[in-house]
Amino acid sequence: MRGRMERNDMDRPDDRRFLHLIHLDLPLLLGLMAVSGMGLVVLYSAGQQKPDLVLGQAIRLGLGFVVMLTLAQLPPRYFWFWSPWLYLAGIVLLLAVMVVGDISKGAQRWLDLGVVRFQPSEIMKLAVPMMMAWFFAEKLLPPRWPHLLGGALVTAIPFILIAEQPDLGTALVVGCAGASALFLAGLSWWLMAGLAGVLGAAIPLFWTFVMHDYQRQRVWTFLDPESDPLGAGYHIIQSKIAIGAGGIYGKGWLNGTQSHLDFLPEGSTDFIFAAFAEEFGLVGGGLLLTLYFFIIARSLYMAAYAPDTYGRLLAGSLTLIFFIYAFVNSGMVSGLLPVVGLPLPLFSYGGTSLVTIMAGFGILMSIYSHRRPRSR
Amino acid sequence: MNLSYYAKAPVDELKIRVGKNNAAESELFFRRALLVLFAVFLAFLAVAGRLVYLQVLNHDRFTTLADSNRIRLQPLTPTRGFIFDRNGVLLADNLASYHLEITREQVKDLDATLVELRERIVLTDADLERFRRLARRSTPYNGVPLRFQLTDEEIAKLAIDLYRLPGVDIKADLTRRYPLGTRAVHVLGYVGRIDENELRRIDPGQYSGSTHIGKIGVEQSYEDVLRGRTGWQQVETNAEGRPLRVLSRNPPTPGQNIYLSIDIRLQAVAEQVLEGYNGAIVALDPRNGEVLALASQPLYDPNPFVNGIDAVSYRKLNTSEDKPLLNRALRGMYPPGSTIKPLMALAGLDYGVVNRYSGVFCPGFYRLPGVDHKFRDWKRGGHGSVDMDRAIAQSCDVYFYDLALNIGIDRTHDFLDQFSMGRPTGIDLPGEKGGVVPSQAWKRKSYKQPWFAGDTLSAGIGQGYFLATPLQLAHAVATLSQRGIRFLPRVLHATEDPGTRVKTLESPRPAPPVAVKNLRSWDPVLNGMIHVVEGGTAHRIGIGAKYRIAGKTGTAQVFTLGQGEKYNAKQLSKNLLDHALFIAFAPVEDPRIAVAVIAEHGGGGSSTAAPLARKVMDAWLLDKYEEAAPADSSSKPEPQGLDAGSHGTE
């Protein structure tokens, strides 16, 4: 109680500044812009120095920032009101994808609405945190096991639908969003242990019945990359060479040979971190990880200052989605984690996920900046 | 500034109702968020640690890998299987050839390089245009072909100066070759450069390093067999990307050789006797469905297609009125005319509409009750009284008008469907058409019109909406010869492992047999077909035959005569002349070949088509290959034949 009151007292003078009037958070904004700017510089080099590529990415980033700015203006009660509806719509669209979706590269993810093609799983990255927060906002916390069951169900349904498409990366993101909401809601350690037990038992079943051959192959390839040098193993081998050859200070911008001579596949998209680490070395890699950590720390701080449970859980869960992207991608590219197709946030070229991530930060800023000013 | 965010928020009321304690929950969240932040820190620390491991501790090793020993993975393209005829005569092989390739990344000044090359070898505008087109679609560090099939002299000229031209390479490859040129082109098809549509469809791993794919014919339908499996090798390259040595190698699996059921000698006979006409000849072995010859005239040479035919030649082929690129045997749809009559007779017997002795009086025309219109017989004076045997042998139209009316169109459709009429036979060649056996439902759907009795009469003699491919007719007569036992037509005879030379023979693929209630129904139909050759409309081809033939002539109308008009072959321009058709099998006692012949605008079936079929059967049954070839000059249109002045179906 004591600590809480003290933190409330620390309401910033920036509450009254211009940026706060338009509901933006300066430290977070600076962090995001720093990473995006670095990303554009690296992309120019990693993308074979094609200006079109950088321009396209800049436009996409601009769109992302506009979405963020727009969402930040909406009071959080809008999100609260729309949470269950967005979630339901997302589930319906996921089912629709199953029936009539387009298949590309062996996975059924896209829904063609005539004008636009989009991935309903993208909606779920926002809808699952919103729904989890909505669900626990009116429950007594820490949650008891019936509520735990409800929360688990809210996460498990989209998780299974997305994993079935199959899109393991997005399923992982959605699953982690749900799990982090549960954790932040204060789930007791005993219940967590129980949940871990259930999931542990489910993994063998998941392996046998849900995972597709190419996903199993990816796990095997991770354990023994040399076994498939023509496929995924080739990515990891070349990506490790690129990072390792970078050394402490890197080879310098535009001097990375691995990506320029096309040894590094997907060098401007999923594997851009390797191209970056080759040219900017441990120093650059360390700086990027620090920036990511700063963004996450600032976001969690903002979440802690949200005035109610809905805002706190939603903000915290959105933060962890960002973390999962950054961690899984950097871990994958450096050979620490299996190959899961997740982009490096704000860095990788393209990807609809960029806009989703920026939308998440917009919601976060809305929650933080719409607090009622408290006076002592 | 009033940021009264919870002024209207329903959450507040809920909190009161459930009895939530926001401060306590906030405290709980804060503790958990701290734990999360710590976990995030540990996770990033792990990644940072990994970076230290790769970039500091193993830096030297990876630098070596990246700089001095660049490893490239090269796909190893498998050798495409050869194609032989059933006796092992080579129909398609691969020729070692050299082409000139340019890797743009390594070229300093592309235009200057092209000028230098032009001084040494012939580079046409078409070459340059193709180079630019291919270059647009590939990355700068991949080689793009500039000139194919360099001569030895050109290679020698280039080799001297190659060291001064970085990025210019002479590459060896294998080019598909069809040594017999136009022969059997409609069976073989050809390979060509992979186009953008195919690029989307194929497995990029399997086709990495491949430039060609089967486009049509056997080359397309047996692409997977002929292709083999791509292998790969890891090569160490120097800083410029030139291979230094091979590190490891996973050899490709070469494609299988294919033996076709085609006998190229018979194919040559079929193509030669048909010369001068547009049309098709299909010869099947009725005992197993093997295609012995599948000729479609005119022919074209597949070889120019392999490395991309030039636009002018292609336009010429594509816009020619004779449509040489059309495989008429599979895709040409013709009114079957009187060749359908044996099947109609069988349908009549099976449905119990007639028996073999039922008679009809033919006055030379047929009239529907209450209608003025006269449906004419091809023979103006009529055939008089005819039974089934005579009706088939003399091809009496009136008999079959009456029969078709009694069976009805829908039952006709259902019966002929058993012979694969109106749907593809399922041959192992791409692009086969299904033809049309009309029915009431079909006409309603296609024309939005009701069915008229007159339509039934036309269908009864294979005219009107009726359409069939030469392959369907050959399949139908083969089925007749086997009394309903059917096999899917196929051109694949055997596959062969190119290493061990072990042949795997294909087994016949049976199709559902034609179910006839009384097996004796076949006898009058087959006897009628024997009498077509022995005293009937095709009696002239029976003269001097060393084996007995059963057949049926047909003449398909290309245009319709007005009421009371008279067909006069001499007054008609060639492309309005009737199509000549003939179907046959032989020997009658033990059928070993079934043939269908269609000569477009050939005039009469008996005068034009039947002699061609006889030559094909002679070649196959009597091994008379040599004489058949030059003898075709005698088979030009002969309007003075037995039924030349007649009209309609004979």
Can you walk through the features of this model?
The complex is a heterodimer of chains A (376) and B (650). Chain A is an all-alpha fold. Chain A has one domain. Chain A contains 15 helices and three strands. In chain A, a hairpin with a 4-residue loop joins strand 2 and strand 3. The longest helix of chain A is centred in the C-terminal third of the chain and has 33 residues. The radius of gyration of chain A is 21 Å and the shape is globular. In chain B, helix 17 crosses helix 20. Chain B starts with 9 loop residues before the first helix and ends in a 22-residue tail after the last helix. In chain B, the strands form eight sheets. In chain B, strands 2, 3, 4, 5, 12, 20 and 21 form a seven-stranded mixed sheet that branches. Chain B has two domains: 188 residues, Penicillin-binding protein 2a (Domain 2); 344 residues, Beta-lactamase, CATH 3.40.710.10. With 650 residues, chain B is of the alpha+beta class. Classes of the chains: A mainly alpha (376), B alpha+beta (650).
